Amino acid sequence: MFEMLFTNSHFMQRFLNTRNIVDAVSTPWNMDGSGNQLRTLTYTIIINNPLIGKYTTATEKQTLNKQSQKGQSYRVDAEVLTHDVPYHDYFYTVNRYSITRTANQKCRLRLSTDVKYKKQPWGLIKSLIEKNTWSGIQENFKQLESDLLMEEYAITQSIEDPGKLIALRRRRRNLHRNMAELLPKRSSQHSSGDIGLESQGNIVGRKRDAARKTTAIIVIMSIFLLLLVLLNVTLFLKLSKIERAAQSFYRVHLQDEKSLNLASDMVSREDIPQRDKEQVQQVKGVLQDSIAMLEQLKSSLSMLQRSFDHLNKTKSDETES
Fold first, then answer.
1. Which segment, 4-13, 176-185, 282-291, 292-301, is predicted with the most confidence on average?
2. ∠ CA 297-301-304 to the nearest 5 degrees?
3. What are the record keywords, sorted (predicted)?
């Protein structure tokens, strides 16, 4: 397992591709002065997150503990630094891989991880960092667990029956090849035997008739929509006229009250009711015109609704046929 996880193995390449990690470059294991072995891995993670960015580069420094025993137990500490995410200079992650051999061809992997801070951010930034970082860590290790289980199953099957996987792959390839050959034959037989020229002509004719009906209905609906727009414009003008008449009536009423209070001798009281009657008649006429316009608008909307119902019915009939 150590070679699978910490070398340029095929398993690790597949895992990196699954995690959308590209441009992975690693150095060989080198021993430092304390007896530990060091290795550096750089790569680019494709994120496509609008809050973080499209990608980020990362540097992973791996340290193989000197107490590790080849073929028996390994302990690897990995420090991961991301360089292009927001607040990347505040934190980094530390992962510890503990691999222990339990039996022949069997081992146990134990993982632990933590988020470390180079400098303490304030509350909101810290919660944002931990939320995004821990979600990424969980996704990464869940994918690693899934890939390791699949690899374990494949290795177990190959050990028990080396030819079983090869035979299974051959059967799958032959099945796909046979299906690819049979499908064109069946489709050609069906088209030549079951559908004649007359039936094809009938289908084309039905499609043309349906297209003509649909076009006619669309034209009629467009005319109704145009009339509806004109009625709305007329109604708007009528309502504006009502508003102006009401405002003028209100102004005249105020002026009449002032004239009654200030100069009752100069204005005859018989002219005021006559003027009020004229204003009321004018407003009443405008209201009647508006009511008539609303009735026309209602009838137009009803006709438009019936047209929509007819169009939906026509489309459903075409689908059934």
1. 4-13
2. 140
3. Membrane, Transmembrane, Transmembrane helix
**Structural domain boundaries, residue 277:** 197-320
Residues 147 and 276 in one domain: no
DSSP state of 68: -
Residues 150 and 259 in one domain: no
CATH number at residue 298: 1.20.120
- For 235-258, what is the mean pLDDT? 70
Q: What is the 3-state secondary structure (H, E, C) of 130-193?
A: HHHHHHHHHHHHHHHHHHHHHHHHHHHHHHHCHHHHHHHHHHHHHHHHHHHHHHHHHHHHHHHH
Is the pLDDT at 85 greater than 90? The verdict is: no
Q: Report d(CA 194, CA 222) in Å as an integer.
A: 42
Maximum pairwise Cα distance, the chain: 123
Residue range 81-87: average pLDDT?
89
**Residue type for 108, please?**
R
What is the b/e burial string over 3-32, where b = at least 16 CB atoms within 10 angstroms of the residue's CB?
eebbeeeebbeebbeebebeebebeeeeee
Average pLDDT of the segment spanning 158-180: 51
For 85, the token pair is 């995410």
Contact 87/120 with Cβ under 8 angstroms?
Answer: no
Count of structural domains, the chain:
2
Could you tell me which of 39, 46, 110 has the C-alpha nearest to residue 78?
39
Report how far residue 317's alpha carbon sits from residue 321's, in angstroms, rounded to the nearest whole number.
6
Is residue 184 assigned to a domain?
no
Q: At what angle do helices 162-193 and 123-160 cross, to 10 degrees?
A: 100
Q: What pLDDT score does 44 carry?
A: 93
Helices 271-320 and 197-262: crossing angle in degrees, nearest 10, is: 170
In a domain, 170, yes or no: no
CA separation for the pair 20, 15 (Å, rounded): 9
